[in-house]
Specification:
heterodimer, A: 222 residues, alpha/beta, Rossmann fold, four-stranded parallel sheet, three-stranded antiparallel sheet, 8 helices, 9 strands, B: 307 residues, TIM Barrel, eight-stranded parallel β-barrel, 12 helices
């Protein structure tokens, strides 16, 4: 999923300063799963913002709503009838959702309430970690199901570097060395032979270096 | 002989090689480079010129390499994957070779987290093994990484680094093998204090036939003080310093610790010369370049062969 964390209240209050009525818009997808911008977090932020404004002797009218998916024009259309009632939209979706809303309602200010972080998975309750860099040419089949692009601090395809110590990355003892994980998996799979093959220089065109990416599925076009 | 590299000539003639190291200054003072390198003129076969080491901005490696070259020392031009994409790397290699540099070392580079620009983008377009392969192809096939022909291709003596002590242990020699398969002519190791583990590493490398395919230079760094010994033992990622060494240096009286460090370094070099497959040493006298000649002298490595 796409992970996110809510922005600091002070930053959000800065966005809110010029407005008297805003739509605080949650999303039912990834940001709900990672407790950053779902219905519940919309409620919490609305209360926190209202209280903070009251404390300053001001009033901010906040209307709460949560869409099924903010990155999908079909659902973003649901606010078309009411959008004119608001000075601005405060989106709690990831950057994809914020841009879909901003793209649809071109004269309406839209502000992000969260910082979109990475594509990751839950390691345990309350902890998410990066797993995929979306590089567009998956190598997991040769690296034992552990991604060197997303999980090695130096994106080394033929690792490990000299800084791997007791299974941890040199940058932080809280970060696993991806190449230790790769090696452990290759051993468990009986495929240590895969290590000796040199993985050639990557073609980053499939990643963001080829410019903004699109997927066009002819079979689905209407 | 594949190149005009002095280091290659020394190694090919079967001499036990000695290389040194100079870190460029954090400013524009060419004299600072000359001062450090001056201690090494005539004392080493090549001198590594580091590339923004520890992820701190310094005078560029190729520029400092040229200053050193003008002094009659052969620079070993270091290049890390952290700061440049493959376009910048290749153009720098062309420029470096055009200006007389013929020996280079391909490295991953320390993570920006450790330096003074932790906010910088971390390039890593290619990794160090892919860099070795890229330079090999530029030299041998006259082709850019992208496949186009190079007019008047460079001829570099290509080096790589190895750390015999990082984890996972089992991969250390296998990764060395990959670097050699990618085209490394020579390898310089991380500084060695744990001689037992280094011997095991070399034994394995020797058994796999790697020492036949590539020259391996063992890294040594003299310990200046007990404080430095403790620092190396605890703070440097992927470095092992046995307790007895820390005790030996730290246990000496303060004014005698430097001498004890040099003595230890000389003993280590003597021990390394006996290890099958060790083709030379790489002396990294960090901010202690002026003591390097004494170490080399006492280790019996002077004068350097004229080839």
């Amino acid at each position: 999923m796409i992970t996110a964390v809510r922005k600091p209240l002070e930053e959000i209050m800065g966005f809110a300063a010029p407005y008297s009525r805003v739509l605080l818009l949650g999303c039912n997808e990834c940001v709900t799963v990672c407790y950053a911008g779902g219905r519940k977090e919309v409620g919490i932020l609305a209360s926190a913002l209202s209280m903070a404004f009251l404390k300053e002797g001001k009033k901010l009218d906040i209307v709460e709503q949560t869409l099924e998916r903010q990155c999908d024009p079909e659902y973003v259309e649901e606010i078309a009838q009411t959008i004119d009632q608001y000075d601005a939209v405060f989106s709690m979706a990831c950057g994809c959702g914020v841009q879909t809303v901003a793209g649809r309602y071109k004269d309406k200010p839209v502000f992000p309430m969260v910082n979109t972080m990475f594509m990751g998975a839950s390691e345990r309750q309350g902890v998410w970690a990066e797993r995929c860099a979306g590089c567009g040419d998956c190598v997991l089949g040769r690296t034992g199901g552990v991604c060197p692009v997303a999980r090695c601090s130096k994106r080394i395809f033929n690792g490990p570097c000299g800084g791997s110590t007791k299974g941890k990355c040199e940058i932080d003892p809280g970060v696993d060395c991806a190449w230790q994980l790769i090696w452990d998996r290759l051993k468990a799979l009986g495929r240590t032979d895969l290590y000796s093959e040199i993985i050639p220089a990557k073609d980053w065109r499939s990643a963001k270096d080829g410019g903004p990416r699109r997927i066009v599925r002819e079979d689905l076009l209407s | 002989m594949k190149t005009t590299s002095n280091l290659e000539k020394v190694l090919a003639a079967g001499h036990f090689a000695a290389t040194g190291e100079v870190g460029p200054p954090r400013g524009t003072d060419a004299e600072a480079v000359r001062k450090k390198a001056g201690h090494l003129v005539g004392k080493v076969d090549a001198v590594n010129i580091t590339d923004n080491q520890t992820a701190m901005v310094r005078m560029s490696s190729w520029a400092a390499s040229l200053i050193v070259k003008q002094m009659g020392l052969e620079p070993n031009y270091q290049m890390v994957c952290r700061d440049r994409n493959r376009l910048a790397m290749q153009s720098d290699i062309l420029g470096a070779y055009a200006l007389g540099l013929n020996t280079m070392l391909c490295l991953s580079g320390d993570h920006p987290r450790f330096g003074d620009h932790p906010m910088a983008a971390n390039v890593h377009d290619i990794d160090s093994i892919q860099l070795v392969a890229m330079v090999r192809r530029m030299c041998d096939e006259g082709l850019f990484q992208g496949g186009a022909e190079i007019s008047n291709p460079p001829k570099m003596f290509i080096g790589a680094a190895a750390n015999p002590f990082g984890d996972p242990q089992e991969l250390r020699v296998l990764r060395l093998a990959k670097k050699i398969a990618a085209g490394a002519d020579f390898v310089q190791t991380q500084c060695i204090y744990d001689m037992k583990r280094f011997k095991e590493f070399m034994h394995q490398a020797h058994d796999m036939g790697l020492t036949e395919k590539c020259y391996i230079l063992a890294g040594v760094t003299p310990l200046k003080s007990g404080g430095m010994a403790k620092y190396m033992a605890t703070k440097v990622p992927g470095m092992t310093v046995p307790d007895e060494i820390v005790k030996r240096i730290a246990g000496a009286p303060k004014e005698a610790q430097a001498e004890e460090g040099i003595k230890l370094c000389v003993e280590q070099i003597a021990e390394m010369r006996e290890i099958p497959g060790v083709a030379g040493i790489h002396l990294m006298a960090i901010e202690w370049e002026h003591r390097a000649p004494e170490i080399l002298e006492r280790a019996g490595l002077l004068p350097r062969p004229q080839v």
